[in-house]
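Pilot study result, target chain (176 residues):
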Amino acid sequence: MTHIINKCIQDNSSICIYANRDNTSKFIFGKIIACDLEHIVISMISPDGYYDGLLLKRIVDIVRIEVGNRYANKMLNLMEKRKCIIDDIKIDKDTDTVKSVLSYAINNDEIVSIELIESGIDDVTGVVIEIKDDICCVDVINEWGENDGKTYFCIDSITQISCASSDEKRLSALRQ
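Predicted structure:
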């Protein structure tokens, strides 16, 4: 799958990524903006044609990728009408993707939702405070947008990160 991912990056393709083994009709639409040997980073687009944050996903979780289909053409049309630009998202492509997304969240004060050890849920939601010695510290934010303590975990235990999606933006609005 890695060679297909690299071709999608090289061609700047908008794609549908299927990565839900329990519901193989569900997919993520967007552009892959970075990858390493284990993960990809997707700049996501909502079904309404708006930017919907970044998603770090493990390559082994990808079931299939669709390129150049009718849905992609519809979404590109919607994005153009909405003036949605996703090519200006900058993450460090020279370090591993997990640390790059976490650093992006720190530098842009973005809320993240993090899945740990393939749990299938968002185990940690909040603001990344620090990455040190492969340990990540997050100021936890609860569903009401309130601070709810700190949590520490090994970066190696991360299996997915969502950053600045509509879910995190909703929490960000509640925080203010």
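One observation from the pilot: Strands lie at 15-18, 28-35, 39-45, 51-58, 64-67, 111-116, 124-132, 135-141, 147-154, 158-163. A full batch analysis is planned for the follow-on phase.
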